[in-house]
Amino acid sequence: MKKVLTISCMTALIAASAFAIAQPAGYTGPSNTAPAAASGYTGPSSVALTTAKDVLAKAKDDQYVKVKGKLTSHKGGEEYEFTDASGKMTVEIDAKRFPPGVKIDHTTMVELTGEFDKETFGESTLDVKQIKVVTN
Hints:
Blueprint: H1 2-21, E1 49-50, H2 52-58, E2 64-76, E3 79-84, E4 87-92, E5 109-117, E6 125-133
Parallel strand pairs: 1-2, 4-6
Antiparallel strand pairs: 2-3, 2-5, 3-4, 5-6
């Protein structure tokens, strides 16, 4: 009986890990790992468009900001490098925030809206709540 239970548990763990690995990717650019795709709100917003440089220099902790540029690399986990004409910053994107069925790589222009996490020590980041692919 113990062997059957042990084999059943091992089979369940293997199946669960295979399912987690087989999730479709939302970001397809340079990466150490591939995130899963999901959906999110894509309607209008009253948050003004700004630049990475201005966010890092002027934004307050927990302030909602919107930036337009490219996800130039995946740093691992939920961290990506965002780049616009003014500079670079680290953004955190949960896999569920990527639009379903849309491939986003280092050449795709995106508009990110999220909550700025200003750190006194260490790197400040943008916690992305919405990703919108820009077509123009």
